Amino acid sequence: MTGTMLVMPRPIPPFTTDIVEGVGEVLGDTERGLTGREIASMLARCGIPDVDPSNTKRIRLFHALIDKQNNTRCGNHVVAFIKATMAPPRYRNDPASRTWRQDNLNEVLVHAGLGVNDKGQVYRRRDGKATTLDEAAKRVNTIRTELRRRKTHDDVLRYCTDELLLKNNFHAVLEAAKSIPDRIRVLTGLTSDGAALIQATLTNRSGPLLAINKGNDHTDRSEQSGFANLVTGVLGLYRNPPAHAPRITRSVSDDELYEAFATFSMVHRRLDDATLSRRP
Predict the structure, then answer these.
(1) I want to staple 228 with a disulfide (CB 3.0 to 4.6 A). Which of 134, 176, 203, 218 is the partner?
(2) Are 268 and 231 a contacting pair, CB within 8 Å?
(3) Residue 37 and residue 57: Cα distance in Å, rounded?
């Protein structure tokens, strides 16, 4: 993350409508964005009129920022608002929300050749503007962005959002691995876990309760058996050892996390097409 800091109040060229809209979508996000009260406070602090206070947070922010930019014919107030909302002291009790906002703002601002650093400052990127989504993902270079670029299954990401935001690879892999038995329980209605769950659902002697193919021939049955063995191995490799070992004695690199999540995603995609052959 290298670049040149933007010095205010030097005039900054106006942002495109898409960029301003993207900033509003991030900072006005329903779950991770600013509250309505915070929006009012920050707009007032930055001297930006709250021109549409009754609208949704995203549209409210967009209208306030774009109206101010149109009146001043520069992007200074947009930058000032981002800096005010991203000041580190505001997040001393909620670092995960700050990481989420920083990552998502960077995915927007990279298309303007800008970024937000860990100090909450807006800087000009030395590598210039990104012109495609793939280029933007590579330049922003966060784990979450890369996982989305690799089309990681939504059910994998849903289980470990906070761990990824806190950059805790160890617990991110552990929580993501838990998504597999949980998904199987949801699909079948069973409540067991581990080998007992796999045996009851994927390798039952009377036929698999949860089938990934039609089971018409030896090839289908071998595939079903291999899938069951794979799921058992995944849980044994990624869930069980970390659950019993302290994080301080084990480390998970970014590459190891990507490999694990690719495997988890493959399992979930097979479960997407699985059928319940009979009631448990």
Answers:
(1) 203
(2) no
(3) 10
DSSP character at residue 124? E
Residue range 38-59, pLDDT digits in tens: 999 999 999 999 999 999 999 9
Strands ordered across the beta sheet of 122-125:
3-5, 122-125, 114-116
Closest CA relative to residue 136, chosen from 147, 121, 149, 126? 149
Classify 113 in phi/psi space as left (phi over 0), alpha (psi -120 to 50) or beta.
left
| Burial classification of residue 161, based on how many CB atoms lie within 10 Å of its CB (0-12 exposed, 13-18 middle, 19 or more buried) | middle
HSE, side-chain direction, 13 A CA sphere, residue 136 = 21
Burial label for 5, CB within 10 Å (0-12, 13-18, 19+), is: exposed
Range with the lowest mean pLDDT among 48-52, 89-93, 251-255?
A: 251-255
Task: Specify the 3-state DSSP secondary structure of 257.
Answer: helix
CB atoms within 10 A of CB 134: 10
CB 80 within 8 Å of CB 46: yes
- What is the separation of C-alpha 243 from the centre of its chain, rounded to a whole number of angstroms? 23
Helix, strand and coil content of the chain, in percent to the nearest 5, comes to: 60, 5, 35
Q: Which residues contact 250 (CB under 8 A, 6 or more apart)?
A: 170, 241, 242
- C-alpha triplet 35, 117, 76: angle, nearest 5°: 70
Q: Which two tokens stand for residue 126?
A: 């030395």
Q: Would you call 273 helix, strand, or coil by DSSP? A: coil
Domain borders along the chain are 3-141, 154-276
Which two tokens mark 240? 């069980």
Contact present, 151 and 157 (Cβ < 8 Å): no
Query: Could you give the CA distance from residue 158 to residue 160 in angstroms, rounded to a whole number?
Result: 6
